[in-house]
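for the writeup, i need someone to sanity check this before i put it in the appendix. the sequnce is what the collaborator sent (i think, or maybe the updated version? ugh). structure was predicted straight from it, no edits. if anything looks off just tell me and ill rerun, i have time this weekend
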Amino acid sequence: MWEALTDPELHARWWAAGDVKAVVGHRFTLDMGPWGQQPCEVVEVEVERLLRYSFAAGSLDTTVTWRLVPEGHGTRLLLEHTGFDLDNPMGRQAHQGMGQGWPSVLRRIAPALAE
């Protein structure tokens, strides 16, 4: 599961292309297709446990946190996307859109890992 979050080739298969690396301070851009290029910076790493990065720096200025929790014979992946300015129309729209979009993105991880 960690590789799905940190390997650029695998990451591109389930979400977005970009030079993601699990290195604090690493800056990368996610190609979100019709939603544009989203600049990101890794702010916290606990190998095989947590990856946190700023997302859409300069526009939304939100934070995406991925947590991996061992569970039985597998791993539970937890996503937290925080920092939306709900007092701003763009922030509200992004919060609503991403809230609707994340479930479909997350459903693509297992098939990408199985390839």
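The mean pLDDT is 94. The first helix runs from residue 2 to 6.
thx in advance!!
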